[in-house]
Amino acid sequence: MEKLIYEKPVISKINAGMPSKFGLPVKQKIISEIDGLAISDLMEKFGSPVFVFSEKTIRETYSEAKRAFETRYPKVQFAWSYKTNYLDAICSIFHEEGSWAEVVSGFEFNKALSLGVNGSQILFNGPEKSEADLTLAIENNASIHIDHFDELYLLIETARKLNKKARVSIRINLDAGIYPIWDRFGFNYENGEAWNAINRIMLADNLELIGLHTHIGTYIMVGSAYAIAASKLANLYVAIHRKFDYWLKYIDLGGGFASKNTLKGAYMPGTETCPSFDDYAEAITNALISSEIPHENLPLLFLETGRAMIDDAGYLLTTTLANKRLNNGKNSLVIDAGVNLLFTSFWYNLGIFPSKETSSFTEETTIYGPLCMNIDVIRDTIVFPQIKVGDQLVIERVGAYNVSQWMQFINYRPNVVLIDLEGKTHIIRKRENLETFKSLEFNPKL
Amino acid sequence: MGENLKIKIHDVISSIINSYSQVFFSKDKVLAILLVIISFFDFGAGIGGLIAVIIANLLAYYLGYNSYLLKSGLYGFNSLLVGLGIGLIYQPSIELYVLIAIAAVSTFFLTIVFQGVLGKYGLPFLSVPFLLSIWIVSLAGSQLTALNISERGIYTYNELYALGGNNLINLYNWLDSFISSSFLRTYFYSLGAIFFQKGLLAGIIISLGLLIYSRITFVLSFLGFTVAYLFYALVGIGFDSLSYTFIGFNYILTAIALGGYYLIPGKVSYLWIILLLPTVVLITISTQQVFLLLNISPYSLPFNIVVLSFLYALKLREKRPNKLIETPVQLGNPEKNLYLQSGNLKRFPVNFPVSASLPFYGEWKVSQAQDGKITHQGAWRHAWDFIITDKNDKQYKGQGDYPKDYFCFGKAIVAPYEGKVIEVIDSIPDNTIGDINTKNNWGNTVIIEHFSNIYTQLSHLKYHSIEVKQGDYVKQGQSLGKCGNSGRSPYPHLHFQFQSTPFIGSPTLEYPIGNYLLKTDKIALKTFSFPENNQHLVNPTINDLLAKALHFIPGQRISGNIRIESIEKKEILHKSDFHWEVNTDVYNTTYISSKEDKSLAYLYNDGKLHYFTNFTGKKESPLYWFFLALFKIPLGFLPQSTIQDQIPANLLFKGPIKLLQDFIAPLYLFLKVDYHLEIKNTGDILSADDIKMHSVLKKKIAGKESSKYNFSLNIGQEGSFEIEIIHKDIKIQLLCGNAI
What we know:
The structure holds two protein chains of two kinds.
Chain A (H helix, E strand, L loop, with lengths): L32 E2 L2 E2 H8 L3 E5 H16 L5 E6 L6 H10 L2 E4 L2 H9 L7 E3 L6 H9 L3 E4 L2 H14 L3 E8 L13 E2 L4 H11 L3 E8 L8 H22 L5 E3 L17 H4 L3 H13 L10 E4 L3 H4 L3 E12 L5 E5 L15 E4 L7 E7 L8 E9 L6 E5 L5 H4 L10 E4 L5 E5 L4 H5 L8
Parallel strand pairs in A: 3-19, 4-5, 4-12, 5-6, 6-7, 7-8, 8-9, 8-10, 10-11, 11-12, 14-16
Antiparallel strand pairs in A: 1-2, 3-13, 13-14, 13-18, 15-18, 16-17, 19-20
Helix pairs in contact in A: 2-3, 2-10, 5-6, 8-10
Chain B lengths: L1 H20 L7 H11 L3 H20 L4 H6 L4 H13 L4 H26 L8 H13 L15 H23 L3 H13 L5 H14 L1 H21 L6 H20 L5 H28 L6 H15 L18 H11 L19 E5 L14 E5 L24 E3 L4 E7 L18 E8 L2 E8 L11 E2 L4 E4 L11 E6 L13 E7 L3 E7 L6 E3 L5 H6 L7 E10 L4 E14 L5 E5 L5 E6 L3 E8 L5 H8 L2 E3 L6 E6 L9 H9 L6 E11 L9 E11 L2 E12 L5 E7 L2 E9 L2
Helix pairs in contact in B: 1-2, 1-3, 2-3, 2-10, 3-5, 3-6, 5-6, 5-7, 6-7, 9-10, 9-12, 10-11, 11-12, 11-13, 12-13, 12-14, 13-14
C-alpha cells in the first residue's frame, strides 16, 4: 500500500451543508498536464516559474471564433491585438491562421513588420501616434485609425509632406448601454463629433476614409452592447453613403470579448456567465445584416478580440515556496510567481490548481507572490487543499496581457514555452539573465 | 472617308465570298474560292449564281438587315443555289438572267421569312428558301418558252476546252480512268452535285476544299456517304442510276450538319449519323416517287426535313444534355467548336443560365451529397445536405441533445441566386434531436424560381425564421431565414436542391453549383461542379481590385508594349506598342480587339470569375499572350489557392500533329493544354495591395508534357497589368493599362 501523504492537523469551522463524519469533502480539480506533457517534466526542463502556451488551444479558439462569425456574416477579418500578447511566436500563429495585426504604437508596428506582416494588413490604433509613427504607417499603406482631432491635423500635415495618400478610419465612441462609456478614445457618435471628423476627412485631399472603428470597452459581459454599437456604426455607414455617395470598406468592432476568467467581485464563475463567441457573433452580425445596409454593400467586419483568443491558451507554472499560517488563523501560501508576472491578478480571481492529487480537505487560503511587497497577493481568498513546500501549482488562463504587461522586478522574467501541435516544446522567450540588463545599462562610475 | 470605303468594300467581298462557303456551313476563304471556281465550270450558271448572290446581299444591305449575318453570307447562299440551279437548266440569255434576278429576290425574302419563323424555335433555315424557289421555277419551267433548255453536259469536252484548253481535258480523262471505283466516283459526283456540277473534278476540288476547311467535315462527308451507300446496297436500291447523284448530296450535307456543325462532334454524334442516314435514304426515295409525278426533283428536301426535325427534337430535351450538345457558340468550324467545348464543358455559362453560390455564409460540410445513402435517392437523388463541423469534425458542442447545440442551427441561409420566391412554409416546429416529422417531410421551406424551369428548394429551416414572403424578388446572397431542424430532419441541417417544377418536394434536377471554394489542404475554386460527400465548402469573397481590373467595359481602350528577348543571348528580339479596344458583338459577347493585327479575345465575366472564352486571330501576338495569361481568373479573395482548366488545344498546337488530332478529335483528344493558376498574393480583402499570380501552361501530347509556359502576373492598383512569360529561352514582357 502506498504511503499516505502527511498533512498537518487543522481545526476549522464547518460552515456549509451537512458534513459526513469525515468533514466536508470537496473534489479538487487538478491540472497535471498540458497537451499531454506532465507539469513536473515541463518545470524540470524549463525551471520555475514558467509560462506555457498551448498552440493547439490557440488554434482551436481561433477557429471557434472564426466559425462563429464566418458562418453568420459574409466578410469577416480578425486582426490580432498585439498588446494582448506580442511574443513573436504567438503573433505568428495568429498570422498563420489568417489574422491581420492590430497595433497601438510604433514599436508594435515595427514588430508586426518584422514578422512579415504586410503593411496594408496592419490596423494602427491608439491615442499615441507620433509624426514618425504616422510616416511609417503611411509609407507602409497601413490603415490608420484616427483617435482625436489633433492626430487628424498631424496626419493631414504628414500626408501632405509625404505627398502620399493615407488610408484612414476613425475611432468612434458611443453609448452602447453599458457602464463605463469609454469616451476618452475617438470621436463621439451621439454629440455629432464623429460627423465633424468624417466631414473633415472626406474633404481632406490626402486621406481616404475606408472604415469605422469602435471599441466599447473591455470584458463586456453582454452581447447586446455590441449589437447597439454595430447598429450605430451601420447607421453612420449608411449616412456616409447618403451624403457622399461612397461606401466605406469596413466596420471594426474592436475587441473586449470576455474570456472565461472570473472578475473580482463576480458572484458566479466566468465559465458560467461569460458569453461565447457565438453569442457575440449573433448579436453583431444580426445587427449588421438587419441594418439599412443593402446586403451587397455589407462592409467587411473587423474584430480585434485579443483576450478571449489567447487567455485560455496560457498557463503559469509555479512552485510553492512556503506554507504559512496567518495571525487570524487563515492559511497562506507563498509561491514563486508574483504580481509582477501576473498583471491580470489585479482584475481576476485567477484559477490556481495543484498539479497532483491532494487530499480532499480544503480551507480558505491566501496565496502570496514572492515579492518583498505587501501588495503581492495573487489570490486573496481561495478554497485550497493542503499544499507542501515544493509542490507545483498551475495558474490557468493567463495568456492575455501578462506577458506584455509583466514587470521585471527583483528577479528575472522567466522562460516562456510553447507546446506545438506535435507536443514538442519550444522556448519562445528566454529567461532573462544579468547580461540582459547589463547590456542596456551604462555606468559612468566604472 | 477612305477608311470607311475600304471597310465597306471588304464587307461586300466577304458577304459574297462567304455566301459560297456557307453552302457547307463554312466561312473558310479557301473553300469559298474553290467553290467560286467550280461554279464557273459552267460559265453561264456561274454568272447566274454570282448575280443572285450580289442581288441578295445588296437587298440585305439596303433594307438594313443584320450586318453580321450579312457578312457571314447567310443571306446570300440560298439565292446562290437558286441562281446556279436555274442557270444550269437554261441556256445563257438576257431572259435567263432576268429570271434569275427575280428568283434571287424572292429567295432572299423567303430567307428572311424562314429565318424569322424557324429562328423562333432556335432552328436554322438551311436551304428551305432555295427549295421553294427552285420548285416554283421548275414547275413553271415548261411554260417559259423564251428560255432554251441548256445543251451543256452533252458536249462536255467542248466546255472543258473552252475553260482550260487541252490540259483540262487531259486531266479530266486521267481522273476518269484513274478513279474507277464506283464508290469513290459516286462520292465525288455527289459532292459536285451540291454545286450542280456533274464532273468528277468538281467533286474532287470540293472534297479538297472541305479537307482544308475542316478535317471533321471532310470525315463526316465521307461517313455520311458511306452509310448511305451501304444502306442502298443492303436494301437493294439501284445505285448508279442517274437520279442518284443529284440526290446523294443529301446524305453528305446531313452528316456534316448534324455530325459536327449544329452539334458538338463526338462519338455519339457520329453514331447518330449512322442511325439517321438510312432514314434520310428512305425519305429521299419516297419523296422522289412523289415528286416524279410533278416532274421535279426533291433536291435537298430530305436533308432539310431530317436536320430540322432532329435539331428540334433535341431542343425539347428536359434534362441538361451532356451528349449531343447543341453548339453553344458557333465558331463556324467543327474542330474549333469541339476544342472549345472540350475545355469549356464545365465552365461555359451558356449551358447553365443559373450560376448559384452556396446558400450560406462561411464554411459548411456536405453531410449527404447527390445519390446519398440516406435519403437522396430515386427522384430526389440530386440534392445536398449541409452541416457545420468544428476542427474535430463534430457538428455540435456539448452533448448535442438540443438543436441549439448544433453549429448550423440558427445560421443564416441566403438566396443561392437571384429569383422570385414561389413558395414559403414557415410554421413547422423544429424537432427535438433524433425525432423526425414524416407528415411535413420537408419542414419549413423556401422555393425560388431563378429561370424558367430552374428552381431551388431550401428545406428544414428554423421555425418562424423565414424573412421573405411569396412573390418577393430576392437577390443572390440575400438572407432568407435560418437553418433549422423541421420536417424529416433528425438533427439540424440544410437541404438544398435544384428542381424543374415549383412544388415542395419536386423531383430534383441535376444541376451544378456555379462556383464555390473547395477546402482541403489547399483551396481550390470549383465552377459549375457538384459538391461531393464530406467536402468542406465556402463561398469566395470578391476582391474589389481584381473585380475592377478585369471588368472590361465596351469602349475601354487599353494600350501597352511588348518586349521579347532571348534569355541566353540577352538580346531583344522584338519590341512594339499595341492598342486594344473592348467591344461587344451581336451575341452580346464582350471581346478585346487588337488594332494592329485584328485579333479578338472573347471574354466572359459573371461578377465572380473572369474567363476568356476564345481567341481568334494572330497567334503569338500581344493579345494572344494576354489571353493565355489571364485565361481564367477568379475575382474572389483566395490567397494560395489554385485553379485548373484546359485551353482549347488548337490555340497552342499547330502543324501535322494538330491535323492528325483534327481527324480523330471527336473520338479521342490526345492533345491537351493544362492551365494551372496559383494566386501568390491577392493583395488583401481591402484591396490595398497589388495582386500577384503565377500560372503555368503545359502542352501535353497523349498525357506527356511536351513544353511549358510560365506566366507571372502583377495587377496594380490602377488596373495595370504586368505580365512576364518564360518559354524555353524566350522571355516576353507585356505591360499594359488603360489608355487615356
